[in-house]
Amino acid sequence: MTAELVRGQNHTLPQTRLEIRVSAGTPVVAGATLGDERGTVRGIEWIAHPGSPQLPGLEVSQQAAADHRLAVDLEALPAGAHRVTVLLALPVGVGGPVRFGAVPAPFVAVTGLDGTEIATFTLTGLDAESAVSALELYRRQDAWKVRAVGQGYAGGLAEMLADQGVTDPAGLAGSIQEAVTRGLARSVAPPPPRTPEGDRVRHATGSADHRPTAPPPAPEPPEPLADPAATGPAHTTQPHTAPGPAAAGASAAGPSTGGPINYAHPRRQHAAPPSPPPAAPPAQPGQPAQPVAGDATGWSMDERLYNQIWGMFEDLARAVAAYRSAVDFAESRMDQELDRALSDPRNRIGGAGDRAREAARAKRDELASRAREALDRDLAQLAAEAAVVEPALPAAYAGWGNPVWHAHRVPMEIPMALRIGDLHLPERTDLRIPLLVRLPLERGMWVDSGRTASEAATLMDTDRLRRLAMETAVAHAARLLAVYPPGEFAVHVIDPAGSAAGPLAPLVESGVLAGPPAAGPGGVASVLAHLTRRVDLVQMAVRARAADSLPPDLDTGEQLLVVNDFPHGFDDRAVTQLRYLADEGPAVGVHLLMVADREEASAYGPVLDPLWRSLLRITPVADSHLADPWVGHAWTYEPLTIPPGSQVLEQVLTAVAAARRAAGR
Q: Distance (Å, rounded) from C-alpha 665 to C-alpha 659?
């Protein structure tokens, strides 16, 4: 039975191999310190944080995320370590919340490797604090216990580390935050907050919505630890609204009883008020229910599909996390069994040692196989859902090869989101999840044209890679123009050396650009001055609540600035203006789409680091660099490609230009 702790309460831990799961509802930094009998941290080598995520017996996440999974093996801690303190902190300097009182109360759960909760703690009562000691695991008379702490620090991470006895806490806090901000360019922003009322409706059984409970783990006597592969990766009901990473829970399909697969994904939650989704076709007796496109809540079909895609993204992340956790557990248990068997001198004589090795490996293979079966079941479920969702997507969510683009008409309303690529994991590369970004854009993008950006890029000619990067940027700009109402989105281009004339031809020839591509120092300065003035004027109008006082020649629509081959052609003033647009522009409708080699841009030194971190890095070729906001997998990003020989891009831009003329824009 789960112990729901309150501040100061403790609970005995029945095992020493644990996971600590954190659900915060907003990206937080998670770390841990080791303490001796007096609770003193002996040095930085006893601190696990995003810049140094692994210690003996302890591993934390390498980035800020809304959910975290911390792995703990109490028996493997360094000699002299008697305490593990879990620390949470809000990232600084990234435009997010600066105090825990402004975010949902973080929830922390201590679980076994099979996902069974041992103790939980909700950190309520926080206000001005930006860092908190969540809980501690401590040794008492050869037994380990967990205590709910919930001690907050208004002085942030530095004050909390100082309280732990760390030398130079401010310097360490700065290095931790720097490690976090370096990872921002690879992080996919989470969807809006979700509420329990947004659960997807269950169609599989035709009955009322009942959340499946996790089947009991398969017995593995005489081992005291349950087998994480026995239940498969899934989604179990949690006693809190913000779901944590299900590293090894029950399967989304429910217990493996041979019955129909449930496509309801009961853990999937959404922000919109519930709205009846499409009804699933009735299942034939003995046959599984069919997945349904739009099987999520929302005011419109577009919103339902958006929520459904994010739910599939999260389900795949958690299912693979469960599988990997189960395989790691099987490997670890095999190592422990071999150590125990071979530590007995009697097993080193004759064939006893060989038999012990064979038995341990056979058990490892069995556990790994069962984990893979559970994963394959979940992957098949998601693949079937993807097969019906993809054809139903509207143009903004669809790939270029989808026939919906050939019949596309410029809309009168802005869609919820835009697809900028696909994501997949190595466990099943053909299962692609659309990567959607909300509209209006909340952050710009950086198309990395460097040959060191990915393994695929190193095999490509430099000129070919740069052209491909610019073609990718042009395709994204075209998609944005196509999904906005006529005249409500404008694209500006800076091409200092005129090297992108070929890729830019579709935009130039269709006449959809706000002006010809800017070239030379004068052109760069003119465009940057124009957009900087727009940002300044709109900011002043918003602050003064005087929107009617804006100049009549000011275009109040969304603006996109495409910059090719940065930083060539930029002086110090232009770089400063570009950083200003990156920081202040998105809030007032000015966005950046950079096309540049990150290594070349680094020649400007740390002055450009904030610019790099503020943009979402994408690549013109496949690259495994993006991280999800739940468990932090390294996802392979696949850019959207136009089918060979297709004229869809030109057709779409022609339709945009015609819609603008018809609207008098």
A: 9
Q: pLDDT per residue over 17-45, tens digit each?
A: 888 989 887 888 899 999 988 888 888 88
- Mean pLDDT over residues 569-587, rounded? 88
Residue 281 pLDDT grade (very low, low, confident, very high; cuts 50, 70, 90): low
Crossing angle for the helix pair 156-163 and 169-182, to the nearest 10 degrees: 130
CA diameter of the chain = 93
The tokens for 361 are: 């490996």
Beta-ladder partners of 109: 21, 120
- Nearest C-alpha neighbor of 613 from the set 91, 61, 183: 183
DSSP string, 442-496: SS-EEEE--TTS-HHHHTS-HHHHHHHHHHHHHHHHHHHHHHSPTTSEEEEEE-T
Q: Is the peptide bond before 415 cis (omega within 30 degrees of 0)?
A: no
Interatomic CA distance for residues 643 and 398, integer angstroms: 13
State the alpha helices, DSSP H only, in 596-646. 598-601, 609-614
Contacts of 203 (CB under 8 A, 6+ apart): 263, 264, 279, 280, 289, 292, 295
Q: How far apart are the first and last CA of the chain?
A: 65
Query: Tell me, what's the pLDDT at 604?
Result: 66
**Residue 512 neighbours by CB under 8 Å, 6+ apart:** 481, 491, 653, 656, 657, 660
> Looking at the predicted structure, is the pLDDT value of residue 264 above 50?
no
> Contact at 8 Å (CB) between 128 and 154?
yes
Q: What single-letter amino acid sits at 138?
A: Y
Rounded to the nearest 10°, the torsion over CA 33, 36, 41, 47 is -30
**CA dist list (Å): 217 to 55, 259, 516:** 30, 19, 65
Closest CA to 54 of 32, 39, 86: 32
Q: Provide the CB-side half-sphere exposure for 187 (13 A, CA).
A: 25
Q: Are 652 and 407 in contact (CB under 8 A)?
A: no
pTM: 0.69
Tokens of 426: 């190595």
**Whether the predicted pLDDT of 384 surpasses 70:** yes
Predicted confidence at residue 326, as pLDDT, reads 81
Rounded-to-integer distance, Cα 391 and Cα 20, Å: 39
Does the pLDDT at position 397 exceed 70? yes
Which helix (H) or strand (E) segment holds residue 387: the answer is: helix 352-389
Alpha carbons 195 and 171: distance in angstroms, whole number: 38
Question: Per-residue confidence at 500, pLDDT binned at 50, 70, 90?
Answer: very high
Contact 160, 133 (CB under 8 A): yes
- Which residues on neighbouring strands pair with residue 23, listed in sequence order? 67, 107
Mean pLDDT in residue range 182-198 = 60
Mean pLDDT calculated for residue range 484-491: 93
Q: In whole angstroms, what is the distance from residue 439 CA to residue 473 CA?
A: 17
